[in-house]
Amino acid sequence: MRKLLIISALAAAAIAAVCVAEVAAGAQVNYQDYPNPEFARMIDENPAIACLNACPYDLVAEPGPDTKAPRGYKPFYISHYGRHGSRSGWDQEKYDKIINTLTAAKEAGILSASGDSLLHETELVKKATNKMDGRLTVRGQREHRAIAERMYKRYRRVFRCGSRNIRVLSSTVPRCLVSMAAFTNRLSALDPRLDIVMDCGEEIQKEVSNEASKETRAGRRHYSDSLRNLIGKECPELMCRLFTDTVAARNLIPDPGALASWVFALGRISRSFDFDFDAHRYLPFETVYKWAEYNNIYMYLGQCNSIPFGDDRMKNTEPLVQNIVRLADDAIASGDVAADLRFGHDYPLMALCSYLGIEGIGARYDVSGAQKHFISTLYSPFAGNLQIVFYRARKGLFGLGGRLDKPVLVKFLLNEKEVSIIGLEPVQGPYYNWEEVRAKISC
Q1: Is residue 6 predicted with pLDDT exceeding 50?
Q2: What is the pTM of this model?
Q3: Do residues 18 and 74 both lie within one domain?
Q4: Spatial separation of the C-alpha atoms in residues 340 and 167, rounded to whole Å
Q5: How far is CA 251 from CA 8, 51, 219, 283, in A?
């Protein structure tokens, strides 16, 4: 018994030392201590960055200004792919585990004030989820209404000076359908004369939504799991924040690393419900970074044009690319379509942008390169979107009898910000010759 008491006292002293050291260190983070210093800096300055593909749109998206088009060119058609907006998660089991652990600690009289706050916040998220995983939240609807309004006002000419026909395709998943409804309802409110035709179904699903192959999923798991193992099963800082008696708390939660993972999952999704608290504040920065890094690498390897798995992953996005090319060619030839809008998911959006070679997300890395350079939050937050805006020269501007044989130009907006295409020379600024783009991406 005496030996056990000595061991317990030593353990308590060790954890207390960690707590004292943590307080002394304050919030200072040396970014150069991490594989991706820029990723570390961004998380430190904006904790929402650690939410990755569960980050609400307006916390990371920065719609940029329009670079002036070449002389005489005006926008006439938009091809769009939009991910569904902010949603609930798939972590109700984890919420229950947090609630059960902290409730037991409260009953035992060892729950700290921070632990009590975390318990309350977890209960709020669980209640808001209401046993409905993956459903679009009010915030998610708001995100799509805002994007639709900005698109309409930014490219008013597309919707008012030519065809008023808009074709819309959606994934069959409810959160995508509700996103589609929010987006198109806003367009209709802004311009009731628009003729919007919507469709979804299993064959459409094959085009607008795609996943990595089983081989790619298995392969990336091997790489990402090696990173996950580095996170560790101990998180003494979290223990001393949540419990007044950390030794007794170990009887309730023998694996503090598991508790840290549950708290990280809670922190990723709470903002989707417009809660202003950040559950990641209960975790030490290093733990937040490591969990974000693990998920970041996992997504890059499985969904982007990575060196290990990119060739295989890009094949699965070819139907979506073909859909974009086919409908764009039809709109160019007929002049009878203002926009093609598609609503789907984050993985197809990431794969599409990688396939097109969009700067940043289209870069090819091995695991080490992705660990050092890739930041998925910038490319696929909730409501992430790709807009391809088509321009043609106005009739009568060039030559006496009308328009000369001027090429159709396109520019790409990722999350409403102009981006460049890797390996392709623009005509001017961010504007590319559509035929050259088409030749580059044709399957």
Answers
A1: no
A2: 0.92
A3: no
A4: 5
A5: 12, 30, 37, 20
